Amino acid sequence: MKCENCSKKECSKKQKNDDTQSTSVDALSSSDGSEEKNEFDTLANAKILLSDCLACDSCMTLEEGARVFQQNQKEFFRVLNLNKKCDTSKHKVLAVSLCPQSLPYFAAKFNLSVNEAAKRLCGFLKSLGVHYVFDTTIAADFSILESQREFVQRYQRRNQEEHALPMFASACPGWIRYAERVLTNLVTSHICTAKSPQQIMGSLVKGYFARQQNLSPDKIFHVVVAPCYDKKLEALREDFYTALYNSAEVDCVLTSGEIVQIMEQNNVSMKDVTEVAVDSLFDGLKEGDVVRHDGKRSDGYLEHIFKHAAKELFGVDVKEITYKALKNKDFQEVTLEKDGETVLRFAAAYGFRNIQNMVLKLKKGKFFYHFVEVLACPGGCLNGKGQAQSEDGKPDRALLAQMEEVYTAIPARLPESNLHVQRMYQDWLEGMDSKKAQDTLHTSYSAVNQSTSSLDIKW
User: Fold this and answer.
1) What pLDDT, on the 0 to 100 scale, is given for residue 23?
2) Where does this protein have compositionally biased stretches of type Basic and acidic residues (predicted)?
């Protein structure tokens, strides 16, 4: 997600408000009223860099800058330390959710299988005081299923509704941020309304799991381990906050690299950590082997939606998808032909150069795709700036190649085959077409009024 005109320097918002933000974090760190030092006081504060994050300069407000700055290791350990105090009224149940695209990073970096990496990561987090460690694949199941259904509905309305098609994927917060802050409603009206896996996981942890454990959502501190920094911004969205409980669905996002930094600062080797099975949202169960969705470097929205639409709309069973690379390897298309006519035309557009070209064609009325899987990072989610970087800030291509090999070796699972998801639709969400399902699994996107300088950003 690199800004073409920006060098590797700290975010200007962070620089301008460094004193304010440091004060905010320090206040949070000592909010338990204790002045004593603890073993985590030496942890480094997170720094957001222009090349790490889409939200450079006026894309991020003063308040957002301060709140993003608080989403670091200090905040994580503030909660862990509060739990060590005697005042149980301040204790939190600490739950960590792991993104599937983060696990290959740990596997490749420490020369482990992906299942070993998941269990050792779980063991390490629990050794710090984390109570539950979850896999977000189930949340991606929900997100893909809802996206599939929405695409079919949009396709069926395409002749009556001007903005029904194309439909753009909504899972990448860097793309969403760019669309809302820089582009117009011409674009945002085309974005799928299904929440991203991260935020659906927030609903599952603070909603379904909290109810199962008889906990108020504000008594759970929910951390997500993710490949990129933009996930921190996504967690701050107002629509992902429950005012009734004064509780966000995701309280803190740490990148994969930040987790490794915590290990290094505590002189812990992944090889020496005890393996612990990853928890399930369902009482008495543990997760089995790691699974993923079809898709080369992401959650596979394009492949799942394409196959589903081919079957639902045209009665065609697509077994294998053939990608056709166009201008570059990060812009590829997939088509379905029936009776000599192209009836479905999908694309994958990764990186902001391809996104720019895509938006330009849309505005000129020369856009012929029905669906586009849009990801801000060139190379997809595995190449998130929170994990696939070398010490000088450049992509670690050797590590990325290993991660891709690990990821493609993970067995793929159809979201439709997850029986837990089917049961939750009925028992928790009151049916697939219920208002509760709509409110829990969907959101809305629209252009945000920005100053002229914001709209002049060139990526």
Assistant:
1) 31
2) 1-19
Contact 395, 112 (CB under 8 A): no
Beta bridge partners of 266: none
Q: Which residues contact 269 (CB under 8 A, 6 or more apart)?
A: 263
Q: Token pair for residue 351? A: 């990186």
On whether the CB atoms of residues 312 and 304 are closer than 8 A, the answer is no
Tokens of 324: 């056709």
Query: At a CB cut-off of 8 Å and minimum separation 6, what does 88 contact?
Result: none
Residues of the chain by 3-state class (helix, strand, coil), percent to 5 = 45, 15, 40
Instruction: Please name the fold of domain 50-138+198-290.
Output: Rossmann fold (3.40.50)
Other CB atoms within 10 Å distance of the CB of residue 83 = 17
CA dihedral 162, 163, 165, 168 (to 10 degrees): 170
Asked whether 162 and 368 are in contact (CB, 8 A), the reply is no
pLDDT, tens digit (0-9, with 9 covering 90-100), for 366-410:
889 999 999 988 888 888 888 877 777 777 889 999 999 999 999
Domain ranges of the chain: 50-138+198-290, 142-195+293-441
220-226 and 93-98: which strand pairing? parallel
Of 183, 162, 207, 64, nearest to 448 (Cα)? 183
Identity of residue 372? V
Q: What is the pTM of this model?
A: 0.85
Same fold? 50-138+198-290, 142-195+293-441: no
Comparing CA positions, the residue from 167, 199, 179 lying closest to residue 54 is: 179
Asked whether the beta carbons of 351 and 363 are under 8 A apart, the reply is no
Residue of 219, 249, 206 whose CA lies nearest to 92: 219
Q: What is the full DSSP assignment across 107-174?
A: HHHTT--HHHHHHHHHHHHHHHT--EEEETHHHHHHHHHHHHHHHHHHHHTTTT-TTSSSEE----HH
**286 bridge partner residues:** 279
State the greatest distance between any 2 C-alpha atoms of the chain, in Å, as a whole number: 75
Class of domain 142-195+293-441: alpha beta
Residue 372's beta-bridge partner residues? 168, 347
d(CA 96, CA 222): 6
- Average pLDDT over every residue of 444-453: 68
DSSP code, position 57? G
Model pLDDT for residues 214-244, shown as the tens digit of each residue: 999 999 999 999 998 889 989 988 888 776 6
Backbone φ and ψ of 196, nearest 5°:
-70, 160
Cβ-based burial of 323 (10 A; exposed 0-12, middle 13-18, buried ≥19): middle
